[in-house]
Amino acid sequence: MDKSIETKKRILFAASELFSIKSYDTITMREIAKRANCSHTTIYLYYKDKSDLLEKLAIPPLLTLAKRIDRIRSRKTLDPLGKLKVIGRGMINFSIENRSLYLTYITVNSIKVDEDDFSSEINAVRNSLFNSLKKVILLNNPYLTEEEALKYGRMIFFQIHGTIMSYINSNEEGLSIRQRVIPILEEALEFLIQGILDKAGPQIK
Amino acid sequence: MDKSIETKKRILFAASELFSIKSYDTITMREIAKRANCSHTTIYLYYKDKSDLLEKLAIPPLLTLAKRIDRIRSRKTLDPLGKLKVIGRGMINFSIENRSLYLTYITVNSIKVDEDDFSSEINAVRNSLFNSLKKVILLNNPYLTEEEALKYGRMIFFQIHGTIMSYINSNEEGLSIRQRVIPILEEALEFLIQGILDKAGPQIK
Amino acid sequence: MDKSIETKKRILFAASELFSIKSYDTITMREIAKRANCSHTTIYLYYKDKSDLLEKLAIPPLLTLAKRIDRIRSRKTLDPLGKLKVIGRGMINFSIENRSLYLTYITVNSIKVDEDDFSSEINAVRNSLFNSLKKVILLNNPYLTEEEALKYGRMIFFQIHGTIMSYINSNEEGLSIRQRVIPILEEALEFLIQGILDKAGPQIK
Amino acid sequence: MDKSIETKKRILFAASELFSIKSYDTITMREIAKRANCSHTTIYLYYKDKSDLLEKLAIPPLLTLAKRIDRIRSRKTLDPLGKLKVIGRGMINFSIENRSLYLTYITVNSIKVDEDDFSSEINAVRNSLFNSLKKVILLNNPYLTEEEALKYGRMIFFQIHGTIMSYINSNEEGLSIRQRVIPILEEALEFLIQGILDKAGPQIK
DNA sequence: GATGAATGAGCCTTCATTCAT
DNA sequence: AATGAATGAAGGCTCATTCAT
After folding, report:
1. Tens of pLDDT along A104-161?
2. Within C 107-166, residues with CB less than 7 Å from strand F
3. How long is the CA D23 to C1' F10 vector, in angstroms?
4. How many Å apart are CA D18 and CA D12, to the nearest integer?
5. Predicted structure pTM score
6. What pLDDT shows up at residue C30?
7. CA distance to B61, C39, D198, per residue, from D188 (Å)
8. Hey, what domains does chain A have and what are their CATH numbers?
9. How many Å apart are CA D149 and CA D160, to the nearest integer?
10. Does C187 touch chain D (CB under 8 A)?
């Protein structure tokens, strides 16, 4: 019983390691098995098939990210802009640690999109992510209409997403990416928030 | 003669359509052929192999885009911010028209990067694109150091890129995308440029 | 009219050149066409298909060889052993000039053997060749029974054939082959004929 | 375990059968598989690829033959000519039993000769075979120079080789071949050895 | 609980061959 | 008389997946 659980974990871990450096299509079951130190047939004991394995793999980190963002949002010691920066950094870190999963969530490229279970789950998480972003925007400028909040939520997301996409498929080291990219993102967030404050909240004054 | 050219085009178009929704590895020659309404062997009449097809597919539109941006940059009747907005709109239009390819250029996902010919060509164009962006930034704020210009060039690019990536894999209509996305992008560009002016050029005042 | 014949010839020549350096399977119609400076479809104007081309190609040289051997056999200025040597040399030359045809005749490997027309024609020629050999043996020792003549004909043929097979698939230069191989063959023929004289014709004495 | 070994053998056998009647290029993996009563993919379970299969196929029997010849050479109860005859018979038997492979060794037809591992191994064995032959010749006439021994070694080999080549691609029964061919070969060997003795060793007298 | 054995589907590519001009 | 366009069949090979133990 114990052993079985351990094997299952080893497989998941091996797969996640691989998914973090290679894309879905280029990963083979045998490769995963090798890393997990078991036969490739053993994988089928625990996972229906390759895409099942990916789902199982993908959901938890996504949830983690969503939770993490939520937690940041409600942290009291941070000012609204600070929160946004931390979130941005969090997403960058996440994208680096889960390189090819990130792509998977956003560009549902490789996964059969017709498997509703999965894409709906993923969509749920994605939406919760958007929502968090929107809420933080509202924290920054509480006078925004719902519509404006949505719009600026997207704007911010686009900036973060674009940043991430610029390296997501490269082989660059995580550290090097962070050093290069985080300062740019933080400054961009400052600018954007400033713009949002200036333009959309004259009444604050 | 006529017919042959037409077939070649059909193949190219089919491939580009597919490349717009799937990654290199998951696209098969037979799939392309089916879409192009010809036999998969016919493809080999016009393209050496799969990777050749991709190259042929990618380079020309990229060049067009680069040229277009360059032309905008040197237009005299536009103020610097206006130029940036036009460029942003241009890239969005391009990404919609070549939904297919945009991904390919930026996320060199699938292509064996060790094939120098290709990646160098693509990189060249990509760099010229970056450069144009940088130059327009400098037009907006001539007091920037080279380094700052580079940094803000990237920042702007990330915003545009992120915007584009948000729909590039969807099936949404071009018009609908434009309506939804261009206002956000233009406002974002305003904010960013404003930030760049405020922060990096206090001496202007 | 003229032109057509010329094209046909060019094709045949190109094919024969190729067959002399490569094996049937590795030669492609396009390759032949290229060498013949015409389209590969043109070949089908003159030859039913690839194997037809080979047949047309194979018979004449074989006939030539058979005739040549016959002529040698009836040359008056040569003693019987001399004739055999000249024949041996002739076969070696032939095998060098028609490297891959030689193989084809003897090891009917590549050609569909069920095409009776061809194999029968080839067999006919092959038999006439054997016959010539037998007759020369009889010239050397007229006291042989028919059966013995057949047997020694084979023996001689085996020696020649084995010699040829030793280089037929190599890339060695014709000249080098000749220098290396002809002396051995001639001496072998001497020995064999001597043996045939000694043993099978004591009555001559 | 047992089963796997059996399958592997079946594949090897099927391949060898095919190699005995067709050339490397014309044999397909699927064809082998059909004969071996398994899927063509199964072959890849046991052999890296087509050429690997051929290697595995070729080396062992060749080694066996080389050893066998060596053993004959050093047998004390046989006179030199007798040894040669036994060797000749051995090679004929071998070629009949491995009809399949004989061609492969000698006419390295099909194998990419640039794969050094393989051709070197095969060449090694082939050379050892030649050497054995040479040594037996020297046993017959110890007064030969090294060069002469080499030359006569070849001569003998050509006779044997030619004999074998004459039936190697036929469907004739082993027994029938032996009856037809061995007497001829033995007599040929007698003649050749006699010639070698007469001519190359006058000093013996 | 785990695995070795086996397979079918499918991929890229080549080639002889036919069709239409 | 000749050719460019197009194709089906086939080949080597890989991979996810199933079966039997």
Report:
1. 666 543 333 334 445 566 667 777 778 888 899 998 899 999 899 989 999 999 999 9
2. none
3. 17
4. 10
5. 0.74
6. 95
7. 76, 52, 15
8. 1-47 (1.10.10.60), 58-204 (1.10.357.10)
9. 16
10. yes
